[in-house]
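To the wet lab folks,

You asked to see what we're planning to order before we commit. Fair enough. Below is the target structure as tokens, and below that is the sequence we designed to fit it. If anything looks off to you, flag it before the synthesis order goes out.
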């Protein structure tokens, strides 16, 4: 078999679902042709291969490229001053009344050009790439007006032209209520459903629609309207759900065949059951949990017992999770949520791929998948979860290169 490149003398964590645990392979080999894996497994089982280039990994570990399946990477400004105010005792409500919070980021995002948004996002993206990320989801949601939401999504797509990485844009128009619609949430949802979603679909700027279903966000009925509009325009759905209270948003996402429900600190048993029945992935965000000093843990044991897929993501955003490290995200998930090493690594690879609807393309080392690899200077996979502030990445491979 002819191929472009072979990585030999490696240890593999394939994450393949038909293998136990992490799908570990000693004395492993990965071969790629035209950007896709043609073989991943024991060297002894490999077919006869002819390659233009062979890389000796010298016993290093290879995992699938990491996937950050929930970020707000594109935005204007930052909220460091608000962080200082909270440390000094100001409440979130006090800061919001003074013009802070999401409205502050909205103003900075509206004031920025598309090129300025791209330039501001690139350092955040580069931090993820430096730790082995090969696919990153990016939400809108800080424009909160048609032109500015579209601008955010175009900026997200432009990131893929600036770096060797796959960007998955998501439309999050129903993120917060802009000041011009104060007291008229239903009117703003009309705009989201009747103008924004059709424009996003027509211009092909996103493959999925998200919303913030919460007491300080949008109601269950308003979220249902957003999902119905998304469905009419052929877009998939996902949801910020059960972060601060239980509005049964996760069950609504499952009802619409949602790719994921995210946060989930207040998820109940009925929500767990609905997510399992719909194969809706639970995306857990320990960075936000840590940063806002949350005290209610997501129901990890119930999700685990039900067999609900659990993904992990940074939730990189300026207000509640200014985090650009999937390695630290895994450590937080293990330490704060008591997730296992296997669950953490699957959470930023195989299960994150499911959360994006990309499980047929990425997330595992299997023939036919894209050849997105992270090669690590480690002795065992647990090191990727155990260490804090240390990056053992040796090399990153995107689409076989």
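Sequence we intend to order:
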């Amino acid at each position: 078999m002819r191929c472009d490149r072979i990585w030999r003398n490696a240890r593999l964590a394939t994450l393949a679902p038909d293998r136990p645990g992490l799908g570990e392979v000693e004395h492993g080999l990965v071969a790629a042709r035209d950007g896709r894996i043609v073989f991943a497994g024991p060297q002894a089982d490999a077919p006869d291969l002819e390659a233009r280039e062979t890389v000796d990994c010298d016993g290093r570990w290879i995992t699938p490229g990491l996937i950050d399946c929930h970020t707000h990477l594109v935005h204007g400004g930052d909220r460091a001053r608000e962080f200082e105010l909270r440390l000094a005792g100001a409440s979130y409500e006090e800061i919001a009344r003074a013009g802070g919070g999401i409205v502050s980021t909205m103003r900075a995002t509206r004031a920025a050009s598309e090129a300025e948004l791209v330039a501001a996002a690139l350092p955040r993206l580069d931090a993820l790439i430096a730790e082995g990320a090969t696919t990153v989801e990016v939400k809108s949601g800080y424009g909160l007006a048609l032109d500015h939401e579209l601008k955010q999504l175009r900026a997200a797509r432009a990131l893929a032209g600036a770096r060797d990485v796959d960007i998955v844009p998501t439309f999050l128009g129903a993120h917060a209520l802009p000041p011009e619609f104060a007291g008229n949430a239903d009117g703003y949802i009309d705009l989201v459903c009747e103008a924004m979603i059709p424009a996003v679909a027509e211009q092909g700027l996103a493959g999925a629609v998200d919303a913030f279903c919460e007491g300080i966000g949008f109601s269950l009925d308003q979220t249902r309207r957003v999902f119905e509009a998304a469905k009419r325009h052929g877009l998939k759905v996902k949801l910020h759900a059960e972060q601060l209270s239980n509005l049964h948003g996760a069950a609504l996402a499952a009802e619409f065949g949602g790719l994921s429900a995210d946060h989930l600190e207040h998820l109940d048993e009925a929500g767990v059951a609905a997510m399992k029945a719909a194969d809706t992935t639970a995306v857990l965000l320990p960075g936000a949990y840590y940063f806002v000093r949350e005290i209610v843990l997501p129901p990890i044991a119930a999700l685990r017992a039900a067999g609900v897929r659990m993904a992990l993501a940074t939730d990189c955003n300026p207000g509640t999770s200014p985090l650009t490290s999937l390695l630290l995200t895994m450590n937080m998930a293990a330490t704060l949520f008591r997730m296992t090493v296997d669950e953490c690594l699957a959470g930023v690879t195989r299960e994150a791929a499911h959360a994006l609807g990309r499980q047929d393309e990425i997330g595992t080392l299997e023939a036919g998948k894209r050849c997105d690899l992270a090669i690590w200077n480690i002795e065992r996979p647990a090191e990727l979860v155990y260490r804090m502030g240390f990056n053992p990445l040796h090399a990153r491979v995107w689409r076989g290169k």
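Structural context that might help your review: The radius of gyration is 21 Å. The CA atoms of residues 231 and 314 lie 27 Å apart.

Thanks,
Computational group
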